[in-house]
Amino acid sequence: MTTLISTTDTVTRDALAVLQPGFTGTTAPEWLLRRVGEGLSSVGLFGRNIKTPEQLAALTAQLRAERDDVLVAIDEEGGDVTRLEVRHGSSFPGNLALGAVDDTELTRAVARELGRRLAECGVNLNWAPSADVNSNPGNPVIGVRSFGADPHLVARHTAAYVEGLQAAGVAACTKHFPGHGDTAVDSHHALPRIDVDLETLHARELVPFRAAIEAGSKSVMSAHILLPALDPHRPATLSPQILTGLLREELGYEGLIVTDAVEMQAIASTYGIERGSVLAVAAGADALCVGGGLDDDSTVLRLRDALVAAVRSGELPEERLADAAARVRALASWTREARGAVRAPGAAVQEGTAPGTAQNPGTASDIGLVAARRAVKVTGTAQALTGPAYVAAFTPVANIAVGDETPWGLAAELTRLVPGTATDTYDSESEAPAEAALRAAGERRIVAVVRDAHRHAWMTEALDALLAARPDTVVVEMGVPQAEPRGALHIATHGAARVCGQAAAEIIAAR
Question: Which of 196, 392, 493, 508 is exposed most, by the fewest CB atoms within 10 A?
Fold first, then answer.
């Protein structure tokens, strides 16, 4: 039940200021505009809110008509996790592809161009990059969202990404602190636990976050993970030892601390979103991300009132909430100033050129494809296609961060290059997928597309059967290339973005 409180008092406005809610629709609903007028400082956007760049620009203009410095946030990592291009697939490869190339100037240029497109649409806070070290190959939620398994490689590319994004006037949000890479559980579904000692944590997980802080990352996102070496009782998002003790005091971070979505089950099913939100702010978080799954006014009011009640009961110090709100407003002011600076005459960097470098790794329009092509690793040789192919896409269940709305693979791109190419999709519920693919292919050359084959026994078995029957099969791995290369031709794209599929299709079609 909503508490009857004043919508103008300082505590209430501060409680609204720390929320980053989502909503449904491609225009801002009346309730959201009303809350912005009452003090809400941030709004989160998801794929459901975006149809076209023009529509998105109109939406953000609608929000800014209520409050010029409102933070408009988005989860746009590029690669597998895209909201701008949720219906078509991203024009940029993801982090693993950039890490595979290992050219920090390229990473900086890609991030700057992505930031330019966001800023052009009025988005000024990106919940990216992922600075997680993917040390566990079985990780079900990070994978290609990480730059790689080497902490120092991840660190240099995290810093380059932060610099490129913020050079375009868009604040970076480095995630998921203190590191989500060594997990076998997805925190969207449950609470992961990482049992490593402090020495390992400092030598591995924290290395990229130190680099992000040195690069000036305007915000950092906490992870819903339990690290007993730091706090045996509370996940990082709710832990004073981790958010205040480690991030603020030990690492010296002064920017905005944002929580991962509080409605994720790691928090919602253990503490509840109201209690979890109060504990997070008390622990040192400054902004509460909510709205991926909960996207209505009642959620905003529930969290607002929970924070106000916690202040009035003495559970949450009023000065802690005030400090959190002040940090949100400070970032909002930076984005407004950065927007003006980027648009000022002479302030723009030549499109496609990373700041501080004389080389142009690609024009702004094609930098993502340039990066995707450079990231491809080819093993083996095979005769070029002499006619239409058959693409067998072995598809795992998408994790929530990636979502199942965004198309992936290479069938569409290969069909464009080789008309007449056909495709079918097979999953873990398909009966005898290899046999079905062989029947459907007929005499056509088979292209088997997999995604993290090393994590899915059914996928490996299907690939075994396919290759036994048709050794000339081309295998394209669009996830983490952990399994040994197989097939007459093996192509590792290091991600499943649309441009990764295009790069692989060009090789198969010899274009």
Answer: 196
